[in-house]
Amino acid sequence: MNLKGIGASRGIAIAKVFELKHYDIKVEKKSITNIDLEINKLNNAINLAVEQIEKIKSIASKNLDAEHAAVFDAHIQVATDPMLKDEMVNIIRDENVVAEFAVEEVSKKYVDMFSSMEDEYMKERAADIKDVSQKIIFNLLGIVKEDLTTINEEVIIVGVDLTPSETSQLNKKYVKGFATDIGGRTSHSAIMARSLEIPAVLGIGNITEKVESGDIIAINGSTGEVFINPSKEVIAKLEKEILEEEKLKKLLETFKNKPSVSKDGHHIEIAGNIGSPQDVSGVLNASGDAVGLFRSEFLYMDSQDWPNEEDQYKAYKEVLSKMNGRKVIIRTLDIGGDKTLKYFKFPQEMNPFLGYRAIRFCLDRKDVFKTQLRALIRASEFGKLGIMFPMIATIDEFKNAKAFFDEVYQEVKKEYPNISNQIEVGMMVEIPAAAVNCENFCKYADFVSIGTNDLIQYSMAADRMSEKVSYLYQPLNPSILRLIKMTIDGAHKQNKWVGMCGEMAGDLQAIPILLGLGLDEFSMSASSILQARELVSRINYKDAQELANRCLNADNEEEVIKILKSDLKW
Ligand code: PEP
Ligand code: MG
Asked: What is the pTM (predicted TM-score) of this model?
């Protein structure tokens, strides 16, 4: 039987099921007579939980990178938070109830608060509070959970859900993967599975009802497929795929910390796209040459109000410090369109993607823009910073944004003399008007980065969110390739470098053409970096140029794909 869930951590695993016991504890509101005794019990349970978390943290710090192990510092903070404890004690005192009821009440309040937030990341933070309060409640009730560190045979763990504490203790030698009823790609257990490199399929819905301990299951963490007691044929096919994955993984390992260079010595940069400071570890693990796009809007979308200068400064400083001298390109606020804010109402428009957004918004709301520019400029002290403006349509827009940047820079320089005097100021090319006239934009911009996600939607007049017109979303259409060529040639005429940070930059089919067109920097999701570097190492730049020329002259995307397929060299 096959089931389907969300592929949360890549890799294929086949092993025996280890069923994780699910404790559906109903905490009862029982009355007490001795309040002090109950508060004492609560204190002991909290202290024991802190000890338990410390122990998990020390195991996790061996299994996980520092960034992910740090979640347990957050758990200790939750467990020792005086405000949370006061709320629990008040419930015990005011209502004369057992400590476990008080813990559950307080936990529910905060879990509900986090779960109701729209942002996926914040929603998942509810899991941290649940994890900690469950430990305290179990300690109060004297329940001892099974110790996953004692597993000593190869298994795939199947459960309703896996808490971050449980995930971080998994020993990769024996735990080949896990599959759960609930959870998604941004849940902590998914993030940890990726960090541990254990295959995981989450959000399957009902896997715990379909299997028992001792069944054999196979999971594919890329596709989300789950096979229960698979046939010999399915096992043989999956085993072949495992071998291929392992071979590829070993090969890609050899490309870590190597230059990104074609077979005949043409150097490019392969960079990572990030949405938060936490994402830097992925880029560093893949030895990315730079951060080519930090989508700063996520700072705004995760916030309850406009993020202040200090909070932004800390985030930018963290990224620059972690990248340790490697280039970091931070895009200024790209809000509007499909990216909305809880605390700001955008005007109703017929076509919000063509409306009041990104640089158009920032040039109108200089107060918001200035806060961000100040934070960016201050952070420049800590690394090699480039900033770029999104959605530039006219040279005047760029000049206005740059002039405002210069003004703010002079102001900040007086307060913070250590800031860099080499901040590059560039722009995204994602509107055709900027692509066709890139040469003239580059009289003013230090660099450009092509945002193909939007460039394609605006060039083909096809909404990137619409299923119905998704057939028009054609990165390899010769018209798009020609726009990219114009952009690259125009920038090069002004001796400026050109990057690409849209999804196309990490597309293995597109890379040989983009290389041939002369793209200097390819910025993609961290998980694609090594594969892109490996591919480029097998390509002769000269051949890629010839290939690109043929593709530019094709009639349609299909013909371009045919040309690529016939070129079996790659
Ligand atoms: C793009 O448009 O290609 C891009 C990188 O920006 P975003 O996807 O954030 O719009
Ligand atoms: Mg865009």
From this structure: 0.74
188 is catalytic: yes
> Measured between alpha carbons, how far is 548 from 537 in angstroms, rounded to an integer?
17
Answer yes or no: are the C-beta atoms of 537 and 261 closer than 8 Å. yes
Determine the distance separating the centroid of ligand 2 and the alpha carbon of 430, expressed in angstroms.
6
Distance CA 401, CA 397 (A): 6
| Pocket residue to mutate for ligand 1, from 279, 359, 480, 501, most atoms within 8 A of Cβ | 501
Q: Give the DSSP H/E element, type plus range, for residue 533.
A: helix 529-537
Determine the atom of ligand 1 nearest the C-alpha atom of 450. Answer: 3
Domains in the chain, please, with CATH? 2-20+147-235 (3.50.30.10), 35-141 (1.10.274.10), 269-567 (3.20.20.60)
The secondary element (H helix, E strand) that includes residue 168 is: helix 164-168
Percent of the chain at pLDDT exceeding 90? 71
Round to whole Å and give the CA distance between 327 and 388. 13
For residue 430, which atom of ligand 1 is closest to its CA?
2
Residue 468 — pLDDT band, cuts 50, 70, 90?
Answer: confident
Ligand 1 centroid, distance to 89 Cα (angstroms): 49
Kindly state the DSSP code that residue 28 receives in the 8-state scheme. Answer: -
Q: Does residue 352 sit in helix, strand or coil?
A: helix
Give residues (CB < 6 A) around ligand 1: 293, 295, 334, 430, 451-454, 501-502
* β-strand partners of 267: 261
Query: 530 — phi, psi (to 5°)?
Result: -70, -35
Neighbours of 423 (CB within 10 A): 18
Q: What is the pLDDT of residue 496?
A: 98
For position 122, what pLDDT does the model report?
Answer: 67
Over 70: is that where the pLDDT of 160 sits?
Answer: yes
**Mutation probe of ligand 1 site: the residue of 294, 297, 334 with most atoms within 8 A of C-beta:** 334
Contact 524, 246 (CB under 8 A): no
Residue 33, both tokens? 């007579």
In order, the DSSP letters of 468-481 are TTGGG--TT-HHHH
Strand 200-202 vs strand 6-9: parallel, antiparallel, or unpaired? antiparallel
- 22 as an active site residue: the answer is no
Task: Classify residue 148 by its DSSP letter.
Answer: G
Angle at 109 between CA 86 and CA 162, to 5 degrees: 105
* pLDDT per residue as tens digits for the range 297-356: 888 987 889 999 999 999 999 999 999 999 999 999 999 987 888 899 999 999 999 999
- Residue owning the nearest CA to atom 3 of ligand 1: 451
Distance between CA 490 and CA 437 in Å, rounded? 7
Residue 270 contacts residue 260 (beta carbons within 8 Å): yes
CA nearest neighbour of 204 among 450, 470, 2, 478:
2
Q: CB 235: neighbour CB atoms within 10 A?
A: 15
Phi then psi dihedrals of residue 521, to 5 deg: -135, 130
Which residue in 68, 75, 188, 266 is the catalytic one? 188
Q: Which of 93-107, 402-416, 465-479, 538-552 has the lowest mean pLDDT?
A: 465-479
Here the tokens at position 535 are 């591919």
CB-CB contact of 323 with 280 (8 Å): yes
